[in-house]
Design brief:
Layout: H1 10-20, H2 27-55, H3 67-70, H4 83-88, H5 95-109, H6 129-140, H7 150-168, H8 180-190, E1 195-199, H9 206-217, E2 225-229, H10 234-246, E3 251-252, E4 271-276, H11 309-319, E5 320-331, H12 341-349, E6 353-358, E7 371-377, E8 383-387, E9 390-394, E10 400-405, E11 412-415, E12 420-422, H13 425-439, H14 443-446, E13 454-458, H15 466-470, H16 500-531
């Protein structure tokens, strides 16, 4: 590894070096530019490692047979597409053309990369040749060592660059990255151990990466997880394919980028797990006369053109298998929007909403809004599922919804300047424990409502006992089918702990002292005026 500045990670050092080379290119274009070079570099690192294995084995005669690479999730690379060839020619005037040709050769030899690479980007670049070659040399400094094995290094650096670009391009309306801690929270709650994982707006594929990390961390088998995703932005779709491919993750992201609502590429898909962060409050997602009778809205209602929040919800619900579960983030407005009351009411009545978890503000770099994590199912009857890697019985939660408010939870603050917060591992396990205890057949002993944190709420008024009615215990029905947690989670009036007689005595004393000081000041002014010959009436 190239020598790092003291106390700086290799990711930070390389990022800072690359960022200094930015010229007149916008952040978004520069992102695609750099990520393409990283893809070439990392593909070559994996290729070379596999090539060495073959040369030092009984299969040395097959060192140039592509199938001996693809069987190990490694791309076969022709000589003119290899990174060492690019570095050797970095100062040539036609370096952009050589890089574009390298991408074309990669696509020809590796079908899964077809249409995914940024071919045509480099020949047309406005980046001066001197900076172009310097950028290649900076990327070239990334090397494997004992501390950073190839696979670990590739994932870390690639993710770091995606994160940094998400922050840097926020003001340029780029496609944004969902912070790892929020994805970790979702995966810990829905536990995608085995089956089909789907994301209808997959962005750069970060949800999938974190899902498989969850399986690995919990000693699961990632080969038992199938990945499906869709993305409408063409550049982001390419980044997602590169992001997953470079890590050796097999995924079906459709034949092309496409609008999930207007051109669903997986109409017959039934997913065991859905994990998503849809665009918040997306407007004009369909024309007034389009998709009005779509099967996805059947039995629930037509989502308004003005906001796609409930279109995303119903789309995801339509993709769930019978015992599937979805975890997704939405803007808080979806909890009580009057325009979607009928849809929300039907979702609640059909037992599709399991848990509503409101997150603190400042969890994203590019916005300080608070968001909500929804847990949704086809039904909430008693079933057996994999929880913590073991078959676990869930109780019947029909006509109940769990509300959790995390706005007062103590989180890490990772950036004072940008006011960025993140959940700690302890935060995530704390929330998971609340949720798992609520799911348990023994929940009456394991779970309890906690003021200002969590509360289990019944849907219908008729479910309440006489005592609960007497104490005005809320239900979803009594609150007009709202899912706003503050309508249900008990608020503690901290003023009740104030010693009012003592506080009033303190306030009265302070007022007397202020009045006395004011009189003394006024007397001093009167004496001063008399001293210079002015009378005071």
């Amino acid at each position: 590894m190239a020598k790092k500045e003291k106390n700086k990670s290799v990711e930070t050092t390389i990022w800072e070096s690359c960022n200094k080379l930015r010229s007149n290119m916008t952040g978004i274009n520069y992102m695609y530019f750099v990520m393409g070079l990283l893809f070439l570099k990392f593909s070559y690192m994996k290729f070379e490692k596999r090539r060495e294995e073959l040369l030092n084995s009984d299969d040395a005669a097959f060192v140039d047979i592509p199938s001996f690479y693809t069987e190990k999730n490694v791309f076969y690379i022709d000589p003119e597409a290899r990174w060492d060839f690019i570095v050797k020619n970095a100062k040539q005037a036609n370096i952009g053309l050589l890089i574009d040709k390298a991408f074309k050769l990669l696509e020809v030899k590796n079908e899964q990369l077809s249409g995914a690479l940024p071919t045509g980007t480099y020949e047309k670049t406005t980046l001066p040749l001197e900076k172009f070659s310097s950028l290649i040399n900076e990327v070239n400094k990334i090397k494997e060592d004992e501390e950073h094995p190839t696979q670990d290094l590739i994932g870390r650096v690639y993710q770091f660059f995606l994160n940094q670009f998400a922050v840097k391009t926020a003001d340029e309306k780029g496609e944004f990255y969902t912070p790892d801690d929020l994805v970790d929270l979702i995966t810990e709650l829905i536990e995608p151990y085995k089956g089909i994982v789907y994301d209808p707006c997959c962005g750069t594929g970060g949800m999938f990466v974190q899902s498989l990390k969850f399986v690995d961390a919990h000693k699961g088998n990632t080969s038992q997880v199938s990945i499906y995703g869709q993305e409408s932005n063409p550049d982001t779709w390419k980044l997602a394919k590169m992001n997953l491919a470079i890590r050796g993750i097999s995924a079906n992201l459709g034949k092309k980028n496409a609008d999930t609502f207007g051109e669903d590429q997986f109409k017959d898909l039934k997913a065991d797990f859905i994990i998503a962060n849809p665009p918040f409050n997306l407007k004009d997602w369909r024309a007034e006369d389009k998709l009005t009778t779509d099967y996805r809205w059947r039995g629930y209602g037509l989502p308004p053109v003005s906001n796609a929040n409930y279109a995303w919800i119903l789309h995801m619900l339509s993709k769930l298998s019978l015992n599937g579960v979805a975890g997704f983030l939405l803007a808080n407005g979806a909890l009580g929007d009057s325009d979607t009351l009928d849809i929300r009411k039907n979702l609640i009545k059909n037992n599709n909403v399991e848990a509503i978890i409101i997150c603190p503000r400042e969890m994203f770099f590019y916005t300080d809004i608070s968001v909500t994590l929804w847990i949704m199912r086809k039904h909430k009857k008693a079933i057996k599922v994999l929880r913590d890697g073991k078959e676990t019985q869930l109780r019947d939660r029909s006509n109940e919804i769990l509300f959790i408010d995390l706005r007062r939870i103590e989180t890490n603050k990772v950036s004072e300047a940008k006011k960025k917060r993140e959940f700690t591992k302890e935060n995530i396990q704390f929330v998971k424990a609340i949720y798992n205890n609520w799911l348990s057949p023994d929940y009456q002993n394991l779970y309890k409502d906690v003021p200002e944190l969590c509360r289990s709420i019944k849907v219908y008024n008729e479910q309440l006992s006489d005592e609960e009615k007497k104490n005005n215990v809320p239900t979803i029905e009594s609150q007009g089918w709202s899912l706003v947690p503050s309508k249900y989670i008990e608020f503690v009036d901290h003023d009740l702990n104030i010693d009012f007689p003592k506080e009033m005595a303190r306030i009265q004393k302070e007022m007397k002292d202020l009045l006395r000081e004011e009189k003394e000041t006024q007397k001093e002014l009167e004496d001063a005026f008399r001293g210079i010959g002015y009378g005071i009436d």
